[in-house]
Design brief:
By secondary structure, the protein is mainly alpha-helical. The chain has two domains: 47 residues; 204 residues, no CATH class. 53% of the residues lie in helices and 8% in strands. Helix 6 crosses helix 10, helix 6 crosses helix 11 and helix 9 crosses helix 14. It is globular and about 60 Å long.
């Protein structure tokens, strides 16, 4: 310390070496403070954050799922209270509104519509022909064969018996059908439980049935067959090895199979089934057989 000439008291300014020491000391203090702040954040503050803050990404996923569920619920039809075994009259009205094709109204004269639908889908999913559940749209006329190049083959006229089925199916309103299906899930689930599947999801069975039909090849060329005691069988082992449900569908003919499969893909998409779960379309030329 020293007195100025005016008598005021001043601190003596530090010299060069002392200034550098002060600067280094200040810098060291700043670094220590920064390290302490980082350690506090990661070791103390972050560990002590409430679980709700850490779960924000999960919360966002949950919220999105709840929103989707709410949207689907809002899209459901407002149906009156329905009993499964007393639902046919309303169902005829609702289903008839899905297509303007006049043949659909004729098919809807059957009874136990939901139970037959559920049983038919379950059969197809398990590779069994659903013939007993869908007799109401059995084709008219008989299965026909023809002789070509010394072989017995399916007569293309046989395929025309199923054209009406294909025509009705492809005229169905896809979004409206998906909406009706979602609205009827409680009754469909009840019918599925009564069929002997308690606690199982019918949606999974429906997807398996769609896959079963989409696995049927679109035939190119003539299809050789052979008469047995009771019916005809395919000479091509790849075709004869198909399930009963698939061979029944194969009899619709390549054009009908292709248009129905296209519609099935539309319905699967409208119902939320992922495209990755569905088999690709495949074309197949039958072997000549033995």
């Amino acid at each position: 310390m020293f007195e100025s000439q005016s008598g005021d008291i001043f601190e003596e300014e530090p010299r060069g070496d002392e200034r550098r020491k002060v600067a280094r000391t200040g810098l060291l203090i700043l670094v220590l403070l920064a390290v302490a702040a980082v350690l506090y954040y990661f070791l103390i503050y972050r560990r002590g954050r409430p679980a709700t803050e850490e779960a924000k990404p999960a919360d966002a996923v949950t919220q999105a799922a709840e929103t989707a569920a709410a949207d689907e619920a809002a899209d459901l039809l407002k149906l009156p209270p329905l009993e499964l075994d007393r639902s046919d009259d309303l169902l005829r009205e609702l289903i008839q509104g899905l297509s303007s094709h006049p043949r659909l109204a004729v098919w809807l004269r059957t009874s136990e519509i939901i139970r037959k639908f559920v049983a038919a889908v379950d059969n197809i999913a398990n590779g069994i022909s659903p013939k007993s559940q869908v007799e109401f749209f059995a084709p008219s006329g008989r299965f026909k064969v023809a002789r070509r190049d010394g072989r017995t083959v399916i007569d293309p006229a046989s395929y025309e018996r199923y054209t009406t089925v294909a025509d009705v199916f492809i005229t169905i309103d896809t979004p409206a059908t998906a909406r009706l299906y979602r609205s009827l899930r409680p009754l469909i689930g009840e019918a599925y439980r009564d069929l002997g599947y308690p606690g199982q999801n019918f949606d999974d069975t429906l997807l398996r049935a769609i896959i079963e039909l989409l696995d049927v090849p679109i035939i190119e060329g003539r299809v050789p067959v052979e008469r047995t005691v009771t019916n005809y069988v395919y000479l091509d082992p790849s075709l004869e090895g198909l399930s009963q449900a698939q061979k029944q569908f194969l009899r619709f003919g390549p054009e009908n199979v292709q248009v129905i499969q296209t519609k099935l893909r539309e319905l699967a998409s409208a119902l939320g089934f992922p495209e990755s779960r569905l088999p690709k379309s495949r074309f197949y030329t039958p072997a000549a057989g033995r």
